[in-house]
Amino acid sequence: MSMMKAVGVTRYLPIDQPESLLDVEIPKPSASGRDLLVQVQAISVNPVDTKIRAPKDQVEETPRILGWDVAGTVVEVGEQVTNFQIGDEVFYAGSVTRAGGNSEYHLVDERIVGHKPKSLDFAAAAALPLTSLTAWEAIHERLGIPEEALANSGHTILIINAAGGVGSIATQIAKQAGLTVIGTASRSETSDWARAHGADHIINHHDEFVPQLQKIGISNVDYILCLNHTDQHWQHMADAIAPQGKICSIVETEQPIDLEALKNKSATFVWEFMFTRSMYETDDMSEQGVILNRIATQIDEGKLRTTETKRLHPINAAQLQEAHRLLETGDMIGKLVLEGFES
């Protein structure tokens, strides 16, 4: 049996524990059905990695492999694959119900894979899939915002945590769609980053939204995309949303939220979970491949840009521990990527 390097979890420990992530060797899989076998060139980390790895009383008999951002090369295709061939350079986020991509080779369903942007190297491309899928689905599907910029003239969106991983691409996608983008940030460096990526205005998420919006001449906002502490911001969002407006969040709540706060405004609240399509194998699962290809085209046309801010090498347990540690500080701007397994 052929083996491959991977970084896995057997016990769920704080990231400062040496055994929180381990260098392991596991069997190299092979492709069948609609799966591609991808040689992993670069990966990125997301909050989903740290949430799954968070301390709990559970032990894995075989190492659990995390990682839901991959850029790499197709080395094998299943017999039902129609969209890809050996040698194609791809990028994708994968499925949370399957093994993640922190391994030398990785199996992924072709329907949720895109062709890597030609203008980016593997590491810069690995920064994009999970966050761009999340942002695109949230903006264009959950909030129902048209892609045509003319249709959105005069409309506003408030993006909470505009300089984070999803925020960094959401500000770009929202600006590309012709919206006036208000981002939240609380530090000068996050404010500058959000402005550089499409935010027209910045407000502080630690203070009430409405008075800050009024200062920039905005009485309420048509859309809100919440990328941080849904329950903490709930009342401020309810106050700031326009009558018949829409709020979308990607962050689970710690306390029940008061939906009645939206009743008089006939406002909509909707969740976005990027893994829904792959988790339930929905009829439109292949839409994620379509979105990734559109993101790649817009990157290559210079309309969007990668949100990579830090690059580590090589892909191993020590470097992934550092990546998780940085992510857990909550101060991360943009995306952190790792490239290359040592041979």
Automatic annotation (TrEMBL):
Quaternary structure annotation from Swiss-Prot or TrEMBL: Homotetramer.
Transmembrane segments: none
Gene3D superfamilies documented for this protein: Medium-chain alcohol dehydrogenases, catalytic domain, NAD(P)-binding Rossmann-like Domain
Top-level taxon of origin: Bacteria
Family annotation (Pfam families): ADH_N, ADH_zinc_N_2
Name of the protein described by the UniProt record: Zinc-type alcohol dehydrogenase-like protein
Source species: Paenibacillus nicotianae
Keywords from the UniProt entry: Cytoplasm, Metal-binding, NADP, Oxidoreductase, RNA-binding, Zinc
Principal location class: cytoplasm
PANTHER family: QUINONE OXIDOREDUCTASE
Localization in the cell: Cytoplasm
Domain Enoyl reductase (ER): 16-338
UniProt family annotation: Belongs to the zinc-containing alcohol dehydrogenase family. Quinone oxidoreductase subfamily.
PROSITE patterns reported in the protein's UniProt record: QOR_ZETA_CRYSTAL
InterPro entries: ADH-like_N, ADH_Zn_typ-1, ER, GroES-like_sf, NAD(P)-bd_dom_sf, Quin_OxRdtase/zeta-crystal_CS, Zinc-ADH_QOR/CCCR
